[in-house]
Amino acid sequence: SALEDNHKYSLRHFRNIHIFQLDHVTIDITNHELVPRHECIRGEPHIQDILKECNATRGQLPVIKRIDPQAKVMRMAPGDVCRIERQTESGHVIAYRVCQ
User: Fold this and answer.
1) Is the pTM of this model over 0.70?
2) Does residue 47 contact residue 78 with C-beta atoms inside 8 Å?
3) What share of the chain is helix, strand, coil (3-state, %, to 5)?
């Protein structure tokens, strides 16, 4: 199913070691009211659909570093795309970032 495919990791996700400070582990940053909802997209066909929708290449997307606290929590690897949903006064905004 699509839910199971979204959580599969390839070997490139296990090449890096992430070191967390104790403060980062005790507080879940994903549940903070000021942090927008982040979703990691790993499937290459889904990423290609997003790039086609945005009329962009991976090189043209903004960057999220893999040392970013949110990227560490999601175990993002270089090449993954992050979907960020923000609720603003003017409406619902979706942005995409590529991990480096």
Assistant:
1) yes
2) no
3) 35, 25, 40
